[in-house]
Amino acid sequence: MRSPRRHRAARRTMLASAVVAAGAGSVGGLSCQGPDSDLTVLVPTAVAAPDHIDFGGVVVPYSAAAEIQLINAGRATLDVQSISVTDTHGVYTVNPPTASIAPDDSVPVVVTFQPATYIDYSASLVIQSNDPEHPTLTVPITGEGIDGAVPELSVDTLSVDFGEVPVGDRAQGVFTITNTGTGPLTLLESSGLADTGPFSVLSDPAGQTLEPDASFPVVLEYAPTDTEGDWATFTVDSNDPVRPSLDIALLGNGGGALPVAVIDAPSDAAPLDTLIFDGSGSYDPGGFEPLTYTWTLFEQPAASTTALSDTAAVAPSLFIDAAGVYTVALQVENSIGLQSEVVSHTLAAVPTEDLYVLLSWNTANSDLDLHLVQDDPANYFHSPEDCCFCNPNPDWGEGGSTDDDPLLALDNRVGYGPENINLPDPQPGTYYIRVHYYDDNSGGDTEATVSVYVGGELKQTWSRVLSQYQVWDVASIRFPDAEIVTEEADLYKSPYIRCQ
Question: How many other C-beta atoms are found inside a 10 Å radius of the C-beta of residue 213?
Answer without folding.
Answer: 10
